Amino acid sequence: MAAITLKDIVKQYGDGFLAVKGVSLDIADGEFVILVGPSGCGKSTLLRMIVGLEDITAGDLHIGGKRVNDKAPRDRHLAMVFQNYALYPHLTVFENIAFPLRLQKGQFTDAQIKEKVEFAAKTLELQDHLDRKPANLSGGQRQRVAMGRAIVREAEAFLFDEPLSNLDAKLRGQMRTEIARMQRRLGTTTVYVTHDQTEAMTLGDRVAVLRKGELQQVASPRGLYEQP
Ligand code: ADP
Ligand code: ADP
């Protein structure tokens, strides 16, 4: 777990477009921050810069006190959960969750992998589904498998990019509760991007509102509601 600090972060794309125009934000260790704003305001760009999938044009990014601007994604120790939770259809739930650990060849024994996968499965109430294939799971269960992968990485922070936008309203409500519970249980620093007002108002400790590449407001959900 680690604090994430953004200082005057700028993103200018190759075509000259300024997508992020100097964003500063201190995210405390264990904090759950929601990033909201209309389509095209720069949410994904910001998240991708934090995880290292996009170069930072200017500014400083610190994770756990270390400047990581020039670090490769794998050296930032973050776990990103995307909306299209790409699970491997031919692998069981167990193997899908174990996948990031198997990639780090030789680092974990089978017993260690089993322990980590079972911990993640317990946290997400997937214990009874470990032998099943993704095709036989509900949308919510698939989403949980994707989160299980993030958990076994024992990441410094979780980054969510609109993870629920493909689910129907009922399932979205259920998953919201589950993500909030998981985050509280693990206490992992979390940045969660959404354009869904309900998610913004119910999930996080603080809400950061992005507009045209600039932070317009950062407040607790209640504080945000009280300001016109
Ligand atoms: P959001 O996630 O809030 O919808 P994005 O971060 O995806 O917004 O995009 C922010 C802005 O940057 C948009 O205007 C988008 O068109 C632009 N943009 C995104 N990716 C690129 C790119 N590779 N090259 C140029 N402009 C881009
Ligand atoms: P490879 O290095 O074999 O191509 P990957 O492309 O899956 O393996 O991953 C490369 C590195 O990128 C990983 O070591 C990991 O740190 C990082 N990475 C992969 N997937 C994610 C993810 N979902 N969230 C955060 N980082 C990831």
Helix content: 25-40%
Distance between the termini: 34 Å
Strand content: 25-35%
So how many helices? 7
Q: Hetero groups bound?
A: adenosine-5'-diphosphate
Q: Which residue ranges are poorly predicted, with pLDDT under 50 across at least 5 consecutive positions? A: none
Quick one: biggest sheet?
6 strands, mixed
Q: Indicate the structural class.
A: alpha/beta
Compute the average pLDDT: 91
The radius of gyration is 18 Å
Mass-distribution shape: globular
Tell me the strand order in the biggest sheet: 6-7-8-3-9-10
Task: Note the run of SSEs as H and E.
Answer: EEEHEEEHHHEHEHEEH
Number of strands: 10
GO molecular function, one term: ATP binding
GO biological process, one term: carbohydrate transport
Keywords: ATP-binding, Cell membrane, Membrane, Nucleotide-binding, Translocase, Transport
Domain ABC transporter: 4-228
